Amino acid sequence: MKDSRDSIDFGSMDIPKLFRKLLIPTVMGMVFSAAFVITDGIFVGRGIGSDALAAVNITAPLFLISTGVGLMFGVGASVVASIHLSQGKAKAARINVTQAVVVSSLLLAAYSFFITWYALGVARLLGSSERLLPLAVEYMHWFAPFLPFSALLSSGMFFIRLDGSPNYAMLCNAIPAVINIVLDYVFIFVFGWGMTGAALATSLGYIVGAAMILVYLSDRRRAVRFCRVKLSRKSMRLTLRNVGYMCRLGLSTFLCEGAIATMMFAGNYVFIRHLGEDGVAAFSIACYFFPIIFMVYNAIGQSAQPILSYNFGAGNGVRVRRTFRLALMTAVVLGLAFFGMTALFSHQVVAMFIDSAYPAYDIAVRGLPLFASGFVFFAVNIVAISYFQSVERARPAMLVTVLRGFVFMVACFFGLPLLLGVEGIWLAVPLTEVLTFGVVMAIYGCGRHLALAR
């Protein structure tokens, strides 16, 4: 069998070439994920009905938590493993990866069992009405038990990219997405299985993706792979210590998932009080659009992460700075491009989701360019958080994430409308990103000043 590593040397390869080899397949993988989210919504809405779509949205926070846990362990373990690899400690890197997969899988198995066993109560806790309750519970029963597989898929791609196989990591995203789309059509439109079919199609896609991760990491020819972990008392203490450190490094990534949920909750609350259901419908288009943009920016950060971590561990500050500057430049260019496209083609973007006859259409067309005005700052902030994580600066990463995703977000959503009316609601997220950008610049400037002082 041909080795699927892509001839990547994090320590010596030309930075732009190395970044491109990681970025292109990572972005493509994210695009497949975005297509999966949108297509899944279309099949559920058109094949089962609007109540089904609402029921799936009710359960969405459960998926965000699961994905957040996977990303947290993926980021934390890959940063630590990158540094070990740069220092020639391959066995330590393998132990970290194994610990991350085992512990996160056990945590999420317990989480999935709880959700499945108490599905009725969890659905009510998430805000389900009695009308939506049967649909939400049916979906959870066929989706929640398989959440550990979705988390393994999220974390495993970090380890595969670290091993130098970004194209295989892309396939781990693409193949589950295609499987889900095909099975969604078959289960919903051909077999008529309703919510059970929708949940099962998604779950089977994640199982295949997770199996691809397990096959790769079980191959003894890989530099980054599973290894046997001792079960002595001393080893368990070391495992707890390592897992705690990984979680501290990756916690800001977990909170990024929570930040998206906070944006949706706060935005819905404010929009419905100013513009009613039409305002919420218009805002939902931005909420569909926003994760796609986030995935692309996240791909930039994930592509830079192994290069940053490896060279940080090797003490090569020049390559760390060059990689960070390249990632920032890429983020700014894409941010400007996304803003330009959204401002010029807002009519076309909105028309993808709703007909122009709906009042929400005009609200969204006017609001989307305002909403998109923060895309450049958003791009820089996401890359900065990834940079802080990659060089083991967990506290700045945490501070930026909490301020951006919770403190600034809530304050702007509730404060700006008092000053600017409806336009203030649309500008709440951009102002959040601008304020966060100011904090990032202050932290980065302070860090450089201290480094020069030494």
From TrEMBL:
Residue spans crossing the bilayer: 22-43, 63-85, 97-119, 139-159, 171-192, 198-217, 238-260, 280-300, 326-347, 367-388, 400-419, 425-446
Location of this chain's protein in the cell: Cell membrane
One Gene Ontology molecular-function label: xenobiotic transmembrane transporter activity
This protein's UniProt keywords: Antibiotic resistance, Cell membrane, Membrane, Transmembrane, Transmembrane helix, Transport
Keyword Cell membrane: yes
InterPro entries the record matches: MATE_fam, MATE_MepA-like, MATE_MepA_subfamily, MdtK-like
Gene Ontology cellular-component terms listed: plasma membrane
Keyword Magnesium on entry: no
Main location: membrane
GO biological process terms, semicolon-separated: response to antibiotic
Membrane topology type: Multi-pass membrane protein
Family: Belongs to the multi antimicrobial extrusion (MATE) (TC 2.A.66.1) family. MepA subfamily.
Designated name of the protein: Multidrug export protein MepA
